[in-house]
């Protein structure tokens, strides 16, 4: 027993799975299938094309300790009041080390057509649109997930407030792992804003492995904002699989500031006409951090738009990885797809590997992609210095403008304004002058 709750000792995944059964967690078919797939694949290596720039070796060297029960370490509400979005007027579901904490959560009364709850509370096996994904971490998640958020919005209903999903790791032992599974399901013409935060209260090298599945109904309009600011020793693996309905509007924003290694797999399926999908991301890295965004947007219907914008600011020996693939299937005419990845390197030792791709099997489409990697524009710095600003302030203003290209696309005013302030303050920690 650790302070964070019941964990397995340093076992293999197969041995840990036996502990899951002994701990009383239901052995649903999804778990057994996930364990079987992971047993066949093992952890990804640099020989795997999708992982050739992202080395998970340091993660595999950690003890394998999935956290199987609720934390016994008390967390006070005051510890969460000052976290990002802690004062936002929102319904808040708090998960500590992968388990729902009712005493820290605040959920207002919703209409009869809206459910905001935790997965263990609804006692159902989650749907799995991600089951066909070969990612080993999805397989591990299926085998060991403990809890997560469930948001269901019926036809023509809307969330009374934004829903803030706050995932906290206490990080008391090396190798502790929280496996989280979220489900967002909306009916036709539903509306809402979902905010997903991942934070650390401790400094141990822990693992967060989260799978989120969203089913967005016809004509629905959903904004999903993910904020990751975990400790410099943490490992963060995340997958988002979305299926979008006719005329749906879905915007996903990823703000990645923390973790030693973070990986976001984004899979969007546009299977009905009239969909508009926006993937928007910012990563700000320093030290030896690595942030990897790997996405596939599949256009499988005509008259759909998808736009991907990802900006990175990298200092010290940090690394950024971007792999974006737009797949336009036969018959998906009138597709409008744009993809850009822009990076600013503040150090000679920072590195970016970027690979935007187009794969098109239709002939009446408008698709563009591009990537840039460069240093800060000295002429722009000189221009601002000539107007009375010192070098550090001039550089920070330019960096803030570069990051602001991403932040300004967030539609929710209070969230956008808080992130804008956070980015400005965080830039003080990056290199301000040579």
What is the residue-averaged pLDDT? Answer: 89
Q: What is the count of DSSP helices, taking H or I runs of 4+ residues? A: 9
Beta percentage is: 35-45%
What is the gyration radius calculated from CA atoms?
A: 21 Å
Task: Explain this structure.
It is a single chain. The protein is α/β, with parallel strands linked by helices and 434 residues long. The protein has a domain at 13-272. The protein has helices at residues 13-22, 29-41, 57-60, 78-81, 119-122, 136-144, 378-385, 391-407, 413-426, and strands spanning 65-66, 91-96, 99-100, 114-118, 149-153, 163-169, 176-186, 191-200, 207-216, 221-229, 235-244, 249-256, 261-270, 276-285, 290-299, 305-314, 319-328, 335-345, 351-360, 365-374. Strands 1, 4, 5, 7, 9, 11, 13, 15, 17 and 19 form a 10-stranded mixed beta sheet that branches. The protein has a 10-stranded mixed beta sheet with strand order 3-2-6-8-10-12-14-16-18-20, with helices on one face. The longest helix is centred in the last third of the chain and has 17 residues, at 391-407. The termini are far apart.
Q: What's this entry about, in short?
A:
With 434 residues, the chain is of the alpha/beta class. The protein contains 9 helices and 20 strands.
Helices and strands, with pairings:
Blueprint: H1 13-22, H2 29-41, H3 57-60, E1 65-66, H4 78-81, E2 91-96, E3 99-100, E4 114-118, H5 119-122, H6 136-144, E5 149-153, E6 163-169, E7 176-186, E8 191-200, E9 207-216, E10 221-229, E11 235-244, E12 249-256, E13 261-270, E14 276-285, E15 290-299, E16 305-314, E17 319-328, E18 335-345, E19 351-360, E20 365-374, H7 378-385, H8 391-407, H9 413-426
Parallel strand pairs: 1-7, 2-6, 5-7, 6-8, 7-9, 8-10, 9-11, 10-12, 11-13, 12-14, 13-15, 14-16, 15-17, 16-18, 17-19, 18-20
Antiparallel strand pairs: 2-3, 4-5
Helix pairs in contact: 2-6, 7-8, 8-9
């Amino acid at each position: 027993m650790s302070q964070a709750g019941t964990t397995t000792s340093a076992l293999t995944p197969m041995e840990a799975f036996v502990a899951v059964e002994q701990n009383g967690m239901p052995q649903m078919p999804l778990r057994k299938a996930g364990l079987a797939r992971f047993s066949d694949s093992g952890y990804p290596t640099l020989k795997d094309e999708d992982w050739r720039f992202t080395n998970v070796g340091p993660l595999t060297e950690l003890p394998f300790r999935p956290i199987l029960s609720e934390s016994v370490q008390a967390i006070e509400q005051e510890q969460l009041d000052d976290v990002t979005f802690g004062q936002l007027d929102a319904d808040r579901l708090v998960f500590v080390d992968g388990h729902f904490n009712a005493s820290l959560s605040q959920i207002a009364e919703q209409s009869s057509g809206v459910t905001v709850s935790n997965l263990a509370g609804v006692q159902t096996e989650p749907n799995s649109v991600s089951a066909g994904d070969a990612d080993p971490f999805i397989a591990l998640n299926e085998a060991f997930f403990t809890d997560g958020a469930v948001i269901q919005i019926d036809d023509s209903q809307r969330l009374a407030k934004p829903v803030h999903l706050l995932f906290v790791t206490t990080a008391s032992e090396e190798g502790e792992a929280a496996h989280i599974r979220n489900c967002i399901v909306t009916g036709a013409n539903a509306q809402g804003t979902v905010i997903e935060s991942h934070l650390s209260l401790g400094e141990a090298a822990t693992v967060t492995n989260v799978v989120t599945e969203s089913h967005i109904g016809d004509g629905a309009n959903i904004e999903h904002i993910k904020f990751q600011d975990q400790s410099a020793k943490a490992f963060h693996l995340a997958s988002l699989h979305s299926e979008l309905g006719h005329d749906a509007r879905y915007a996903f924003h990823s703000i990645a500031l923390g973790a030693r290694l973070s990986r976001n797999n984004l899979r969007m399926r546009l299977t009905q006409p009239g969909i508009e999908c926006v993937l928007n991301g910012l990563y700000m890295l320093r030290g030896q951090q690595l942030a990897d965004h790997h996405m596939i947007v599949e256009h499988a219907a005509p008259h759909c738009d998808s736009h991907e914008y990802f900006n990175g600011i990298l200092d010290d020996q940090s690394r950024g990885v971007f792999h974006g693939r737009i797949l336009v299937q036969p018959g998906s005419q009138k597709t409008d797809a744009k993809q850009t990845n822009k990076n600013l390197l503040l150090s000679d030792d920072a590195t970016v590997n970027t690979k935007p791709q187009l794969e098109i099997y239709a002939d009446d489409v408008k698709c563009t992609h591009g990537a840039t990697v460069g240093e800060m524009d000295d002429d722009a710095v000189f221009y601002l210095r000539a107007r009375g600003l010192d070098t550090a302030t001039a550089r920070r203003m330019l960096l803030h403008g570069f990051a602001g290209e991403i932040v300004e696309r967030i539609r929710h005013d209070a969230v956008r304004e808080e992130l804008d302030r956070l980015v400005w303050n965080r830039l003080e920690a990056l290199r301000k002058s040579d």
